[in-house]
Amino acid sequence: MSAQAGIPPYGTKGLSRRCFPTGDENPRPGFKESNHMTLIDILRWTASISGMIAAILVSLNAGARITGIGFIIFSGSSVVWIAASLMDGNNPLAVQNLVLFGINIFGIYRYLLRKPGSGSSASDAG
Length: 126
Known about the structure:
This protein has a domain at 37-114. It has 4 helices and no strands. It has helices spanning 13-19, 39-59, 64-88, 91-113. The longest helix is centred in the middle third of the chain and has 25 residues, at 64-88. It is elongated, with a radius of gyration of 22 Å. The relative contact order is 0.09.
């Protein structure tokens, strides 16, 4: 099988020099030739797995305490995502998780810190 005229085969140094000015020899982001995990990989996996656990806890609807614990885990996940995103230069993901962190803090307040009966609800409107 030959490459089309003028297009180098996938993964050649010529392709990486033209498409990846940082000198990255690997044109497939996320794929590594070695089996070693970097700090950013560890942070991403930690944030992903903790986010999944938090989503399960919140979705269980098992009471205010369990939901509040889910929001605590979500907050930790957001902090880790922010750190990994800033280290990787992925600013949109960092901003998204900064907003989600604020929402999670509100969830912690609502489910764990607010006294029962404080504030108004739709049922009080009468």
